[in-house]
Input
Amino acid sequence: MDPRERTIVQGATLEIRNLTKTFGPVRAVDDLSFNVQPGRVTGFLGPNGAGKTTSLRMLLGLVDADGGTATIDGQRYVDLPSPASVVGAALEAASFHPGRSALDHLRVHAPLAGVSDARCHEVLDLVGLGSVKGRKAGGFSLGMRQRLGLATTLLGDPGVLVLDEPANGLDPEGIVWMRGFLRHLAHSEGRTVLVSSHVLGEVQATVDDVVVIAGGRLVHESSLADLVAMAADKVKVVTPDVEGFTRLATERGWEFEAVSGGLVILGAAPAEVGAAAFAAGLEIHGLAGEGQGLEEVFLSLTAPREAEVAA
Amino acid sequence: MIATLRSEWRKVVSTRMWWILALVMFGYMAFLGAVIGFSVSQASGSGGGAGMDGGALSGLEAAQSTYTIGASLGYVFPLIVGALAMTGEFRHQTITPSFLFQPRRGVVLGAKLLVNLGIGVIYGVVGTLGAVLGGAPLLATLGDGLYLGNGEVLGNLFFSVIALAIWAVIGVGLGTMLPNQVAAIVVILAFTQFVEPILRIGLIAGGDAADVPALGDVAMFLPGAAAEALVGSSFYAASGIGLLDRWEGALVLVAYAVVFAVVGRFTTLKRDVT
Output
């Protein structure tokens, strides 16, 4: 591709509005709404079967929505005149003809992305497959397929990247590389990057924003920082003066539950609880931020019962 | 559309299947050409004179039956290649990137039909050439001559290429209607190798026996019979089985391609790609 066309990358806003899809008796996606902003990496999270892939396929016009809309800067994917230069997408189960070389896989799509063979070589070098261009995709490891999938998305130099479980099958080194690469694409180049995953830890170091779904419904949408803040607020206090602490928690508006030897306070950081106890002159034998790990917060968000409450 | 055509063309030529099948077709047609060439040469030679023996072919008819063996018995090759063009996309899930790069599914189908018409021409040339090269030496040495300068024979050769090309297009339509690769290939093999030959003879024989000639006419509208009508000669026709006119045969053959493609467009290609 001509370098002149590649100097400006236009990230676009993805808008998902009341998206709904039913497969038989199953509501795979249920009145789902969220936004994805350019210049940021957004994690699209949820357990397996939460409806992530179906949502992405509706965004990309592969699956017809029963209701609602999914647009890219206001346009439906199928209405984009040249979709490959606006959105690059790699969906689950990286799909390649096993008898086709990595280079030929890209050359097949190059005409519709409006790019030359030179660009095919370029993106293969970019994702680290430069040395295996001529090899058939059938012999590729899962990690290499992920890289080839990523190369395919970059072919038309789109402002929006949609990647379904991109870290699957990557070795630790590959994960670090992918992380840096995606952040670079979003932060330095202004692209919109949406990555799905069923493991928060896998994308925790990559994403800026999180959209969490469970059972086809939105259960959480915020910056990663806000989700992290939710995670920290759980403190276990070991004390002989349970009554005193009960009073203190009630005064401060903290939720709490009694446990053996003390109580667990929710909605406050360890330092806050310690300071309050000191000020109130309460005796403490132990104070520990049980910092419900981020993963735990994620689990509680996506647990079936919690999902219904949140809905 | 041009970009989609280029994309579809690259899909076909970037794997080995198309030339392997073409090579097999060439070998098989050369072999069948030699077998038919030999048998018609023997028949006319041993008959002692033209027209003596009812089953024997001589001269022009012998040459025509031999040279068009590709269109009468080899059409399964372009048919399979055409079907693989669509079923392969579903089998290897490449239909997902294909529809991402070209979300207008009708355009993808249209491009596949056109590209496979071109691939079909290659198969037509390869298969027809195989039959000629296999049969010619025997016709020249043992039989009544080559007849390769004969206008009628040249017409048969030309339309043999066209018929084989249309078979590839029918294959795309069939593969779209029946995207399960194994099912499509089983249906193709069963229909071309057993169902149609038996049906043709059965319909004609049944029509004769029941004194309902319309039954025999139905047989002429089967795709293989229509292709032979387009070619203007065939192994079957030489044994006295009736055919449509050339233009009727062409229309019927193209109609199969169009109907299959349209049905596929509104069934398979309407569905969600998951």
Observations:
- The longest helix of chain B spans residues 105-141.
- Chain B has 13 helices and no strands.
- Chain B has one domain: 2-270.
